[in-house]
Amino acid sequence: DIPSHLDDLPPTMLKKDYANLPIMNSVDDVVKRLLSLELASQREKLKVKTQQLVEKVRRSPHDNGSFELLSLSFAVAILTAKIRTLEEHLQRHPKDKRNRRFMLMGLDRRRKMLGYLRRVNYSTFEKTCKELGIQYSPPQPYTRRLTKRWMVKKALCIKVFQEKQKLQAAERLKKRREWQARARAAREQQE
């Protein structure tokens, strides 16, 4: 009873391999039914859905992903189809750790690709997210969890740094006075 992202595929639609064959217009209805999505496996339906998502991202019909960013959009579309399929599987089988790991790895790869696309070409990024229905949120900046041990260590480091600054200040003052004395001596010799 869990809704699938493959439910919007019409059952009369032909499988990906047979969709563009000219002979399909003249075959029997039984053969068409066998080659349609009605009796297709999950994998074959996923191929058709992936092709649809890639078509959404494609700019023009002659675009085959030759441009680097466009091929990145295609990769994001393919990953999105796989992720959605794994999400549905995990709703039915919540204890499946292996597929959960694959889904999380796919989410991470897609997030990295979208982050790169966002930095390089924001308009393509926006179009890709809009067409695929992806909600992108940038990663949170790194924050360290404060522990008592870390705070004590940080305080010690600050104290050592300040002591070293005091010692260096005394040395700098000593060198400055020497330099000023040499400069006075040099002026007196010139006069």
From TrEMBL:
Domain of life: Eukaryota
GO CC annotation terms, alphabetical: mitochondrial small ribosomal subunit
Compartments, record wording: Mitochondrion
Molecular function in Gene Ontology: RNA binding; structural constituent of ribosome
Keyword entries, A-Z: Mitochondrion, Ribonucleoprotein, Ribosomal protein, Transit peptide
Entries under InterPro entries matching the protein: Ribosomal_uS15, Ribosomal_uS15_bac-type, uS15_NS1_RNA-bd_sf, uS15_ribosomal
CDD domains: Ribosomal_S15p_S13e (cd00353)
Pfam families per the UniProt record, alphabetical: Ribosomal_S15
Keyword tRNA-binding found: no
Keyword DNA repair: no
Gene Ontology BP, a term: mitochondrial translation
Similarity comment: Belongs to the universal ribosomal protein uS15 family.
Protein name, UniProt field: Small ribosomal subunit protein uS15m
Gene behind this protein: Mrps15
